[in-house]
Amino acid sequence: MNNWDDIRYFLAVTRSGSVSGAAKVLGVNHSTVTRRIQSFEAKHGVELFIRQRDGYEMTEAADTILEQAQQMEEQSQQLSRTLYGRDSRLEGPISLTMTHDMFEYCLAEDLAQFQRKHPGIELNLIVSPGLRNLNSREADLAIRLTQAPPDYLVGHEVAGLQHGIYSSRQRPPDEPLGIVLWRDQEARPDWVAEHFPKASIALRVDNLSSMYAAVRAGFGVARMHCYMPDSLDHDDVIKLPISLPPSDWSVWVLSHTDLRKTRRVQLCRKFLLDRLKEKRGLFEGEQSVS
């Protein structure tokens, strides 16, 4: 009978392509991964990986068992979710995932109040721009800006999203206008072509906090979700009187369907829904001041 830990180590090396990468994912040291893989190979008398200079390459034997190993992983995750979903205690850990700006500018104070009210619940925050894997319980609850969440998640759409174009109040009107874009925006977006056709690209960034800081520093104008600049409400950053259509993305609170009966997850989910609904006007741009 195969040890599930052997399968975990095998899958980690398969996905990362290296022992060091697998060690990082599993939270163990390099030698532990090597020892477990060698033990797994010796137990079955096969070689699973060919050691190359740039990583580990799967052998035919490894490729043969990969699908079965993935099925074992899914069964283990489902077992964990089923047991966790029947947990009725108001104590223990809850893992939350959301973006940095959502936590810092919208929910940090609220979650501090939740934790003080329920000291037996330990909150674990995973700051991530993408949707962490709720299927494997990397997180129990996710707050995400998305068009449509995956089918295996249950959730509530809390609010729509509105964009605005923001500028530094101190920007000299006679200086050439710069624009601040996302790093992955290769082409000039429509709002630039329509409203600022002569502007030049001054800076590209990869997160909302940096975009806001760039606007405030005077790099130029930027199109941002209203909730962050409006929550900060700095006098030296203004929203320009330019009307933009609502975003087709929304704010969602999400969890895996198997966790719907976990009492502490239910409690935290309801708390987040209530607090985010109170901030609906912030997300939908109703608090913007030009």
Report on this structure:
- The protein has helices spanning 4-16, 19-26, 30-44, 60-85, 100-117, 190-195, 208-217, 227-232, 263-278, 280-283, and strands at residues 49-52, 55-58, 92-98, 121-127, 141-146, 153-160, 163-168, 178-182, 200-205, 222-225, 237-239, 250-256.
- The strands form 4 sheets. A 5-stranded mixed sheet has the order 4-3-5-12-6. It has a 3-stranded antiparallel sheet with strand order 10-7-11.
- The protein is of the alpha/beta class and 290 residues long.
- Helix 1 (4-16) crosses helix 4.
- It has 10 helices and 12 strands.
- It folds into 3 domains: 4-85, Winged helix-like DNA-binding domain superfamily/Winged helix DNA-binding domain (Arc Repressor Mutant, subunit A), CATH 1.10.10; 92-154 and 257-279, D-Maltodextrin-Binding Protein, domain 2; 163-239, Periplasmic binding protein-like II (D-Maltodextrin-Binding Protein, domain 2, 3-Layer(aba) Sandwich).
- 42% of the residues lie in helices and 23% in strands.
- Residues 1-59 form the HTH lysR-type domain.
